[in-house]
Structures are given as C-alpha cells and as structure tokens.
Amino acid sequence: MSTHVDIDPAILYFGTPVVVLSTLNEDGSTNLMPMSSVFWLGRTAVLGMGASSQTARNLRERPEIVLNLPSVDLVTQVDRLALTTGSAAMSAAKAERGYVHVADKYGHAGLTAYGSDTVLPTSVAECPVHIEGTISAIHELGEPKLLAVEVAVTAVRVMPDVRLEGHPNRIDPDRWRPLVMSFQQFYGLGERVHPSRLASIDEELYR
Ligand SMILES: Cc1cc2nc3c(=O)[nH]c(=O)nc-3n(C[C@H](O)[C@H](O)[C@H](O)COP(=O)(O)O)c2cc1C
Fold this sequence. Notes:
By secondary structure, the chain is mainly beta. The chain has a single domain, classed as Pnp Oxidase, Chain A, CATH 2.30.110. Helix content is 12%, strand content 37%. It is built from four helices and 16 strands. It has a seven-stranded antiparallel sheet, with helices on one face. A three-stranded antiparallel sheet has the order 1-15-16, with no helix packed on it. A two-stranded parallel sheet has the order 7-8. Strand 9 (113-114) and strand 10 form a beta hairpin. The relative contact order is 0.20. It binds flavin mononucleotide. Flavin mononucleotide (FMN) binds next to strand 3, strand 5 and helix 1. The site of flavin mononucleotide has 19 residues, from strand 3, strand 5 and helix 1.
C-alpha cells in the first residue's frame, strides 16, 4: 500500500524562525531584511540569502550584522518589511513581484533603532533577542545567486522576561515565543508537547 505521493514543490520552506537582519548601508544607515533560512550550530549562525539583496551587498563591504529575533506579536511590523528592498536598483524579477525600494526600513515598519554593543549596524529595539556578529565566510551555493553566510556571534542581548528564572544565561523556551514562517505564511509556536530526553543534558555542557 502506498502512503505517499511524489510532488515537485517550488519551495521547501517547511517552517523556520523569522530573523530580521541589520546590516550597514554605504551611507552609515542600517538596512533591515526579514529572512528565515537560518540555523545555528554552537556560536555560529548560517544564513541563506539571495546574492542580489542589499543585505548581501552590505555584508561583502561591511561584514558586521545583527540577527534580531522577533516574537510572534511583532508580525505586523515584520510583514511591513516584506516586498521591500534597500537596493535602489532592484532586479527585474523583484520589480515584477511588486517589490518597492525603501531607504528607511525602520520608519516604514514602525520599528525603533537601538545602539548595538559590538557592531555598527543598529539593533531593533522591539525584538526580544539581539545576536550580534561578524561575517567569517560567504559561500556561493550550488544554485545560482544563492549564498550561505557564516556569522561568528560576538554578543547576545535579550529582554529579561525571556530568561529562565534563576539562570541568567538561559532562555526559557516556554517564555520565548518566536515568529515562524512556513511556506510564506506566519505562525507562532504551540505549547510544549512531550518531555524531552535531550533536555536531560546540562545546557552548560554545550558551551
Ligand atoms: C518572512 C520573510 C522571510 C524571508 N526569508 C528570506 C530568506 O530566508 N532568504 C532570502 O534571501 N530572502 C528572504 N526573504 C526575502 C527578503 O526579505 C527580500 O529579498 C528583501 O528584498 C531583502 O532586503 P534587502 O534587499 O533590503 O536586503 C524573506 C522575506 C520575508 C518577508
């Protein structure tokens, strides 16, 4: 008996957290880019992004970044950043899809700039988590015009209410409510569903 069918999806975005990337424009202002092709291993973040974005251009010239993690209640502001680019000269493909050039992404989204500690791009004050870093490598992926950007994390700053009580350096996963994108739609996380055997490992052992 067959339980599955073959399909040919145009995208494989099965659900990842949304991140708003801060990078430095040539004029010293900060560009914001919503994205969700991200994963973390140890103190390294890996970001998947289109090579023609203003963000990719900024990172090649000025390799500093903030990964701002929006909570689910910031979805309206994040959605305002969709279909915008900080690049005045956008690709024909983006123009066709309805993208518009926006120089002031903070003003456009209704977000507030907050001075970062270790890098020049500003952080998004409303986001509960700010992960600052420098670019350690930019890899061209097998597919044309796609990049994997490696970020070496230099500082992490959070709003106190997402911390685990009694543990100043830990996040409480029951309090941290990330915004998630799945197949171009926004979601939040549901409740914890099962005890975790992995969680029997002391988090400090990952340090
Ligand atoms: C929720 C969301 C997630 C996105 N995820 C990605 C992504 O993972 N990688 C990417 O290259 N673009 C992603 N995009 C599209 C970029 O935001 C878009 O290319 C934008 O124009 C880049 O901004 P910039 O040109 O000012 O750097 C996403 C957009 C939204 C709204």
